[in-house]
Amino acid sequence: MMGGREKFDSKLDRLFTEGLGKSKWQYYSTLPDATGNVGQFVMGNEPSMHIPYLYNLAGKPWKTQKRVRMLMDTWFRNDLMGVSGDEDGGGLSAFYVFSAMGFYPVTPGVPEYQIGSPLFNKVRIRLQNGKTFSVIANNNSLANKYIQSAKLNGKELTKTSFTHNDLLEGGSLILEMGDRPNQNWGSQEKYK
Questions:
Q1: C-alpha distance across the termini of the chain, in Å
Q2: What are the residue ranges of helices labelled H in 76-192?
Q3: 173 burial class (0-12, 13-18, 19+ CB within 10 angstroms)?
């Protein structure tokens, strides 16, 4: 719909870099809940939270990894700027919790998660069915935010997503992290 993956990627880049087109006081006087701006992207408003994960769909998952880490570091801190925007329904907290674990449900009603860049070296989710799903990020650090390779339950994972059923089966998602983008991992997946 946007002219292909490269044009979609370009539009996403533009969203994160283009200015507001007016002074901040004019912008915020009109849109007081649209805070946490990065370019024209609004971290502080629930309808925007899936956008950094759309780089996965554009075939540029390293941009998702970079952007998600930057957003968590910038807008979710333990100080006066702790949570950007209008945290009225738990959406911002849910974004942070999912993203810190390393994945996010981009489309409501579609039982699929897009992979980002986890903050933690290991996360264990104890499921109601008695199973456990773990996300393990080897070599993870502030600098090592880029996925080099991935395995889901021992099998190489070359795509940027996994299903809710995969999570319910239990097991592990193992991510090998590095300080430079691997522009091959997850970039070949075709989306309809």
A1: 11
A2: 91-101, 164-168
A3: buried
Quick one: which of 131, 50, 166 has its CA closest to 98?
50
CB atoms within 10 A of CB 4: 11
Structure letter (DSSP) for residue 86: -
Residues 166, 180: Cα–Cα separation, whole Å:
28
Give the tens place of pLDDT for each residue, 25-80.
898 898 887 888 899 999 988 888 999 999 999 999 999 999 999 999 998 888 87
Q: What are phi and psi of 5, to 5 degrees?
A: -65, -40
Contact status, residue 17 vs residue 39, Cβ threshold 8 Å: yes
Measured from the Cβ of residue 18, the count of other Cβ atoms closer than 10 Å reads 11
Helix (H, G, I), strand (E, B) or coil at 8: helix
Distances (CA, A) of 144 to 33, 119, 173: 33, 10, 17
| pLDDT confidence of residue 191 | 57
